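Annex B. Sample input.
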Amino acid sequence: MKNLYLLLIVFCLSLSANAQFLNWGIKGGVNYNVNGDLRAFDGTTEIGELSSSDEIGYHFGILTEIKLPLFLYIRPELIYTHTESSYDTNGDQSTLKMDKVELPVLLGFRVFKIGRFFLGPNFSYITNTKLSVPDAIDSVSNVTYDDFVVSGQVGLGLNFGKIGADIRWETGFSDSEAAFINDNIVPDGEDFDTVLVDTSHSQFILSFYYKFK
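Annex B, continued. Sample output.
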């Protein structure tokens, strides 16, 4: 929770910049996300490993844009993001769902007024993870997960007055993992009681935004 408070404080500080050089607005869009492998354990013995498949999620939030000299700008954003990844278990799909509060802080370059190129870090606080397993008799319980993740973003965008769009690629810099447990999960007649999911990720993000100033 301290990491979430830190994200909010940093974003609020960005709003205190001189209003003459500050734009702000709202944004939203879709995420095309993939996480790391899912590993199943019976006690301490690993009995299976599955690779993640891409799934579509979504995001929305607010942005600020602080103008700098030489066609440069800094864009802090405060974003709520929902992502999903799936794992094929012999024809059935297990799904990992994650909810995050994110603070990308991007350095951008304006090109011919309408073009944008940007890159920078993204600080994420994971607020919820849920794993759905088709063969589970009961719901799978989350035990632990790494709640703070640092990643990087790079992208291109177009800006037409107050409206704009961008596409960016993001990849995780830090390792992160979520653990789930349920004694009643029985895929293929073989019991396992613990699931570990590598939640470090990579994704493409398509966003649309509107600036009020």
